[in-house]
Structures are given as C-alpha cells and as structure tokens.
Amino acid sequence: MSSKLYALIDLIDDPDEKVYVQIKDELMNYGDKIIPMLETTWENTIDKLIQERIECLIHDIQFNNLINEFKSWANSSELNIMEGAVLIARYQYPDLNVEAVYDELEKIKRDVWLELNDNLTALEKVNVLNEIIYTTFGFKGNLKNIASPANSFINDVMESKRGNSLTLSIIYLTIAQDLDLPIYGVNLPENFILGYKDESGLLEEPEDVAGDVMFYIDPFSKGVVFPKKQILEFLKQIKLEPQKAHFEFCDNKTILIRMINTLIESYRKLGYTEKIEELTLFLDCLDN
C-alpha cells in the first residue's frame, strides 16, 4: 500500500466535512482491498467519529462492489435465481458464507435425488420434494413474523427454516430444476406460487392461459398441490380481476423484482429510509 493511502486514512477524522468528503472519494477509488486496513484502524481507535466514518466507508465500498456484481448478474443470459437471491442476501450480510448456503441446498437436493426415479408420476415427484423439504428438513412458512426482512434473505431462511412464499419458492424451484423437474415460478399476488409444467403437450389448450401447467404448488403451505380453479377463487376473495400473469410461469427477473419490492416494503414499515433508497438501486439494475 502507498504512503498516500496511509496519509488519507490518517485524515479520516478531519473536522471539515468538505475535506472529509474529498478524502472519502479518494479512498473509495481503492476499492475493497483497503477494507482490512480500515478495520484495523477502527479497532485501534476509541474516537467515535473515526469509527462511524470508517463504518460508513466500508459499507459504501462493499455496496458499490455488490451493485456492480448485481448488474453483471442482471445482464447475464442465464439469470440463475439462487445466485440472484444470494446477492440480495449479501446486501444485509456482506461477509455471508455463500458456500454454506449452497452446501445446505446440496444436502436437500441429494436426499430428494435418492428418492426420485423415472417411474414416478409428476405428483409423486412433488410428494417426494415435499416430504424431504418440509418433513425431513423442517421448512415452513413464517406465520408469526411475516413482515420481517429476514424472510427475504435466503441465508436466514436456510438457517431458520422459516420464510415467506417467495424465498421458500426459490429454494423449492432451485432444488427441483437442478434435478430436471419442470417447476417454475408463478407471480400470484399476495402469495407467490409454483407450477408444474406439462411437457407432454397433452394438456395444452390454446384458449386456456394455464394450458401448459399441470398443477400448481404452494411452497408456503408445505407444497400443497391445487388446480387452476383455486387461483380463480383466491383472486375473487382478494377482489382482483384474473390476468394472464396470475396463471403463467414468470421469469427469474420478475422473481427478483418481487423479492426486492418485498424487502423495500418490510423496511418501509420499519422506517429504514436509507435501506429503501439502496434497494431501489438494485431495482434500477433490473429495469432494462
């Protein structure tokens, strides 16, 4: 590290706010390679101003890096849903052990794989998924604290086994798709669900918007399976006119947009204005 960098860090406590802003901008240009030095400086001082400024600086460096990673994800051709969810989790947990999340997913996937075989029907395969995910591993919908931001962070859900309809759906469809099961997201208002795609084409009806969906799955309710008519009944209950998007499969970008908006609403209820502003920048990355 250059002597100039050490000099800039020594000036973090400058009482002149304009001078500090200039110093901060220069330090930001060094990126995350200076974070260890900043952490050491924080540990070796009792000055609250220095500590607060270092905390803000580290946050801003990590946030900028994360936004750039998220932009790359948003511009990729694959848009892997779990990768997107992990990036959102790293917003709250910059030092997240990503490998631990994937290791836990692998455990679940392995147990499901051991029980699957080609002779099973689509419904029987879903029953295997449900047994492993909800009975063996104990996942369930969080009914006690549904508005908590933790419900939208995939690592929290993997650890607590409690989540909202969206995070549980992401876990469910990730495992299913990795095992070549045709399960996809359906952007139903107030309760994100999944659908099992009919790949035979035998159920396809041109006039039916749900023609390629064999049946629907509710991951929030332990994977209960239900037909299209229950979506119609649900929409009637919440006084919404049925739309094509309520029955069809959605893409992964739509799922991430909904996840971010759910987080924004959670933080709005808690009054965390700064987090709302930062999460809006994630949405901007998807707006193309």
List keywords for this structure.
12 helices; two-stranded parallel ribbon; 6 strands; 288 residues; 8% strand; alpha+beta
Helical fraction: 55-70%
What is Rg? 23 Å
What is the CA–CA distance across the termini?
Answer: 39 Å
Spatial strand arrangement across the major sheet: 3-4-5-6
Strand content: 5-15%
In the predicted model, the low-confidence regions spanning at least 5 consecutive residues are none
How many strand units? Answer: 6
Count the DSSP helices: 12
Task: Lay out the secondary structure.
Blueprint: H1 3-10, H2 17-28, H3 35-43, H4 48-74, H5 81-92, H6 98-115, H7 122-136, E1 140-141, H8 154-160, E2 162-163, H9 165-178, E3 183-186, E4 193-197, E5 213-218, E6 224-226, H10 228-237, H11 252-270, H12 273-286
Parallel strand pairs: 1-2
Antiparallel strand pairs: 3-4, 4-5, 5-6
Helix pairs in contact: 3-4, 4-5, 4-12, 5-11, 6-7, 6-9, 11-12
